[in-house]
Design goal:
Layout (H helix, E strand, L loop, with lengths): L2 E6 L13 H18 L4 H7 L1 E12 L8 E12 L4 E10 L4 E13 L4 E3 L3 H7 L4 E8 L5
Parallel strand pairs: 3-7
Antiparallel strand pairs: 1-3, 2-5, 3-4, 4-5, 5-6
Amino acid sequence: MHVFYEGQVLWSQIDANQHMRHSAYADIAAQARLNMLGAVGLNPVTLLNARIGPVLFKEELFYLREVALGDMIKVTCELVRARADGSRWTIRHEVYRGDGIKAASINVDGAWIDMDKRKLTLLPEGLGHLFSESPKSDNYIEDIPKSK
């Protein structure tokens, strides 16, 4: 298990039903994902200097158990699928409560965007190999892009 975020559920993350609000899950998943990228050398400064950033096409959240105010949580991240060139990818995040119970699973599909051209791109040659070092799921799939 590759934990990339740990913290306490804050008052500002609670909804009217007194459990963690839906958008807080997306926030903690995004932070865990950035921490994962940073752990392999793709920290925000490196990406900003390259004028490239991650962009999401789809975010899917499965709620499994309630998370309440003050709960301690851990978030794991791993690549589930990626193209061989790293241009498109799927990352799974799992949110665990302090008692070890899995509370949510978040899957995102994404790619890399050139911040100046506002178009999808590849990571530069010097950075592409770093992304391939990201933790991978046991059922990881590497896709080969189709020829045009």
